Amino acid sequence: MMGLDRQRLNEDIAAGIYQCAPEAQKSTGRFWDKPDLCGLFLYAFLLRVYGAQGETATKPRERKPAISKKVAGMYACKVAEALRSDRPEGSDRIDLPLSGFNDDWIANKYDQPPAFFAGEVGSEIATICFSLTGIQAATDAKLADWSGESA
Q: Stretch 113-133: mean pLDDT, rounded?
C-alpha cells in the first residue's frame, strides 16, 4: 500500500506511530478515503526519502534516518487533517512552523512566502511546507497506475 509493507504499517498503527489511520472494521478492514490515502502517500514518501530504508543507502546499516516514523506520521496526519478542513479559497499548501511542537499548521498559497507562525505556534528560523495539490496529484497518479487507468 503506497509503497509500504502492510504488516509494518499495521505495526506502526498499533504502536501509535501512525495515528490517523481509519479504524479497522471487523469484517471489512480499514476504509481509506482520499485524505487518508494522501496522508499515507506522504508517510511512505517521507520514509522512502528520509527514513533509514532510504533509496540511496547502499548497505542496510549505512544510512541513519533523517526523520523518524513518528515525525513522518505526524506530518502525514496534518496533511490529512488539512485536506478535510475548511481551508481558505485557493490555499494549496500548508506550512508547519518548526517550533519544537510542530503540531499546528496554516493554509497558504503557492505564490505566498512560507508562514513562520500558525496561531500561537511559531518559529523565526524555519518552517516546513507541504503542497496539498502536489500530494493529491501524486496520490491520484498512484491510484490510476494501480487501477490500470491513465492519470
A: 90
